[in-house]
Amino acid sequence: MKLPMKFLPFLLLLISATNLFSQTKEGFSIHGKVRGIKDTTVFLAHYFGYNQQVIKDTAKVDTQGNFHFVGDKILPEGLYLVSLPKSKFMDIIIGNQEFSFETDTINLITKMKITGSKENEAFFKFQQDMAAKFEEMKVLEMEKKMGNSMLTAGKIKKLQTDISQYQKEWLKTTDGMFVNKLIKASQEPEIPPFGRPLITKADTTAYYQYQFSYYKNHFWDNVDLTDDRLMRTPFLQKKIERYFDDLTVQVSDSISKAVDLLLARAKGRDVRRYVIYKIASTYENPKILGTDGAFVHIAEKYYIGEPTLWDTSTVRKMKERVAVLKPLLIGKILPNMYLTDTLGKEILIPKIDADYTVLFIYDPECGHCRESAPKLAKMYQGLKSKNVKVIAASIDRTPVKWKKFIKEFKLEELIHGIDIHKNPQTGKEEYYTDFKNNFDVYATPVVYVLDKDKKIIAKRLPVEQIEDFIDFHRKQSAREKEKVKTQK
Questions:
Q1: Which residues contact 278 (CB under 8 A, 6 or more apart)?
Q2: Helices (H) and strands (E) in the chain — how many of each?
Q3: CB burial class (10 A; 0-12, 13-18, 19+) of residue 447?
Q4: How much is the pLDDT for 2?
Q5: Are strands 98-104 and 28-35 parallel, antiparallel or unpaired?
Q6: What is the rounded distance in angstroms from the CA atom of residue 339 to the CA atom of residue 432?
Q7: Phi, psi for 391 (deg, rounded to 5)
C-alpha cells in the first residue's frame, strides 16, 4: 500500500520567510569575486539545519570570476553558503545586506578578503587564525612522531593553551555580534574539575556520573535560543539531535522532560517553531519502540497548546493525530476491535486467554503482507508453545479474498477476523471497525503485541521480531518481579 504524506506540515518556507531583521534599505546587493572560476553559475542559499539549504539567489560568473547577488527584498539573517562549481562552497554571514568579498579557489578561507561587513571580517579572521594554528599543531604532531617527544609535547601543550586563550579573547572582542553566537553554538561546554581524587571504584563511577550530568545540564549554555538567526545555521539541528540521541534516555517521559527544559529556553518565535517541528517530526514515527508518547506530549503542549504559533490547519491536523495516537500508546488497553471469525461468530479480544496476544492487521492483496504471512506461519508453532495467541484481522471486507489468503499461506490455526456483521433486524451487512482512525492503519501490515491484560506492549514490530520481543519481555517481567520480591 502507498504511504500517505507526513502528518506534520512542511514548515520550511513559512519559517524562513518570517520575522526578518529590520534593514535601513530594502533589498540586498552582494558582490563576489572568486579567482579560479569563470563562465558558470553560483548559488546563494541559507541553511535550514545541516542537511537542507534554501536557495535565495543565483548569479552568473564572468570570465574574471566576478558575480553579483542582488534582489529587491531583504534576506533573512543567518549563515549562508555560496555554492561554487565542483562541489566547492564557502559560508558567509548575512547581516547587513550590502558588502563584497574576494577570494581564490586555491584556498577559499585563507585567501578571503571582505569589504563592508564587520561580521564577515571577524568570521573569516577567526577561521584564518585558527587554520594557521592548526597547521602549526599538525607540524608539531609530526615532529612528535619522529622523535623529541618530550620537547615537542611541551610545545603542543603551550600551543593548546594559546589556542584556548585566543578563542577566549576573540569571544570578548566580538561580544554582541552574531558571529560570536555562531562560534559559541558550535562549542562544547567546559566541564570543571571533579573536586576530589579518584581512589576507589565508586569515586570513578561518581566522576563519570558528574561529567555526564554537568555536560547535559550545561549543553545549551552557549546557544542563544532567543535569536531566530540560529535557525538558519547547521549547528542548531546538530545540537538537537545530539541532545536527544546521545544524552536523553529514549523513553517517552524522559524525552518529554527534555523537550520542556529545552523549550523553556527557546523564546524566539521562529526558532521555537523550528525546535518544536524538528523534535516532533523525530518522534511522530519513532525508530525506538514506544517513544511516540513524546510526540503526543509535544503535539498537545506545543501545537494544540500554543495555537498562535501555527496556522489553523496545522493545529487541526495535530488534534486529529493525537486523537488517533493517544489511545494506542504503550501501556494502554487495546481499543475495541469488532471482528467476526470464519463462522460469523464475534471475536472478543479481551476474553482471549493467553500470556500474550499478537494482532496482525493486514490486507490480503498487500505485497508486504504477503511477504510477512509465511514468516508468521513459520513462527506460529513456537509462539503457540509459549501460550501466545495470534489474531489475523483483514481490513479488506471481501470474504473470498480473506479466505483465499488464509488458505494460501496455511494460516488456519490462527484466530481469523473480519469486520463484517449482519444486522439481526435488517439482515444487512454492517461495518463497525475504523482501522485507520482507531488503530492507526495507514499502511499494512501493522502488528500490535498485547500482554495478558490486553495492554499494548509493542506496536509496528516487523513480523520477524515478534518472537524475540516476547521472549525479551517475558524475561524482563520476570526480573522485575524478582526485584520487587527481593526488596520486600
A1: 49, 237, 240
A2: 14, 17
A3: buried
A4: 36
A5: parallel
A6: 8
A7: -105, 125
454 vs 450: CA distance, rounded Å? 5
Query: Residue 415 has what pLDDT?
Result: 97
Q: Other C-beta atoms within 10 Å of 173: how many?
A: 9
SS3 of the chain: helix, strand, coil, percent, to 5: 45, 20, 35
Q: Which residues on neighbouring strands pair with residue 95, listed in sequence order? A: none
Q: Give me the pLDDT at residue 488, please.
A: 64
Q: pLDDT digits over 62-83, tens only? A: 999 999 999 999 999 999 999 9
Quote the pLDDT of residue 150.
Answer: 74
391 has which bridge partners? Answer: 359, 415
Confidence at residue 19, expressed as pLDDT on a 0 to 100 scale = 42
SS3 457: strand
Alpha-carbon distance of 52 to 111, in angstroms, equals 27
DSSP H/E element including 358: strand 356-362
Closest-CA residue to 377 (of 464, 469, 450) = 464
Burial of residue 151, with CB atoms counted within 10 A of its CB: 0-12 exposed, 13-18 middle, 19 or more buried: exposed
Give me the pLDDT at residue 9, please: 43
The angle at the Cα of 396, spanning 443 to 451, to the nearest 5 degrees, equals 65
Residue stretches of the chain with pLDDT short of 70: 1-25, 148, 488
How far apart, in Å, do the first and last CA atoms of the chain sit? 52
The rounded distance, in Å, linking the Cα atoms of 259 and 354 is 38
Predicted local confidence at residue 11, as pLDDT: 41
Please name which of 35, 39, 38, 76 lies closest in space to residue 57, comparing C-alpha atoms: 76
Q: What is the CA radius of gyration of the chain?
A: 30
Cα 101 from Cα 116, distance rounded (Å): 9
Query: CA-CA distance, 440 to 460, in Å (whole number)?
Result: 10
- How far are the Cα atoms of 154, 256, 285, 318, 488 from residue 297, in angstroms, in the given order? 53, 6, 14, 11, 35
Nearby residues of 87 by Cβ (< 8 Å), 6 or more positions away: none
Which domains occur in the chain, in start order? 21-124 (2.60.40), 201-328 (no CATH), 339-479 (3.40.30.10)
**Using CA atoms, how far apart are residues 69 and 57, in angstroms rounded to an integer?**
6
> What contacts 428, CB < 8 A, 6 or more positions away?
422
